[in-house]
Design brief:
The chain has one domain. The chain is about 55% helix and about 0% strand. It is globular.
């Protein structure tokens, strides 16, 4: 199986190359949100789309591929007695 390009180092470098001043955790949250948005059929900005496509998580029809689905599950799912990883990122980066 192909190794995922979603590493802390790749997230940080790719965000910086595209002009985003995100921390690694904020980049994970944004990648998660952009992947969900694209998979639901909505469009991202050109730069956001470039960030998302850098990690090869989508098929040509913009739905999540196997690696993308794995990323979504790793970030967005936890057993019933735990909170998903994404919860902590949302709590830190999306509360006003």
């Amino acid at each position: 199986m192909k190794e995922s390009k979603v590493t802390d180092e790749n997230l940080y470098i790719t965000a910086r190359l595209l002009g985003f001043e995100w921390t690694t955790d904020e980049a994970k949250l944004n990648l998660f949100e952009l992947l969900i948005k694209a998979g639901a059929g909505y469009h991202n900005s050109h730069t956001e789309e470039g960030f998302l496509r850098s990690f090869e998580l989508m098929k040509a029809d913009r739905t999540p591929n196997k690696t993308g689905r794995k990323f979504i599950m790793e970030m967005g799912y936890a057993s019933s007695n735990k909170k998903a990883k994404i919860f902590y990122h949302i709590k830190k980066w999306r509360q006003s």
